[in-house]
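Whether sequence alone determines local backbone shape is best considered at the level of individual chains. For completeness, the protein is quoted in full, as a sequence line and a line of structure tokens:
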Amino acid sequence: MTDAAFPAPSELPVDGQELASLIAAKLCHDFISPSGAIMSGLDLLNDPTAQDMRDDALSLITDSARKMVALVQFCRVAFGAATTAERFTADELTALVDGVTSGGRATLAWNLGAGDFGKPQARALVNLGYLIVAALPMGGAATVSVRHEGAQMVIEGVAEGGRARLKPEAVTGLSGQRLTEGLAGQWIQPYWLWLTADQHGGTLSVEAVEGRVSMTVRMPS
């Protein structure tokens, strides 16, 4: 079992400039695959010797453009504050996560109930949903649920599968600790989830046992 530790704000391991650069690096990494595929499709369309592959090229461009749009829409809520919306419905948030996780080996079920979500709660929810699916690289069943306990919102994600696991970098990030070894790209989003909960008066707890991973965010409603 891994329970997230909470450094005091003055002891946060990453300052704003470093945090921004790490998030920018992750976004560039995520965007390069669909954008590169779009360029490959356009090259095929413009190649006079590959006109027999025109349908394949159009399919590649279409699928990659949809993936790019889904990533941009997800990241605006998960990492940014550029959206003008102050509150989000459950349907809007589930669509964002489904858009970037569908087609993988894991299934994702939602139990969010009625009501809507402010920006901090929405940010925590979509990041948690993404990460709980990522804990099932070989497939399995993930669920995300929301309940209210007094003035607190409890967001819980559970991943169950034969190979359910958290990478060491993710464990470090979910604990609010600086990465000392491993890949920063695997660390930054888990750390961002921890930081979202911590800076809005909440807590994050994580449990990982064989075949099961759970993450629970508690924060003011």
Observations:
- The CA atoms of residues 186 and 217 lie 20 Å apart.
- The first helix runs from residue 16 to 46.
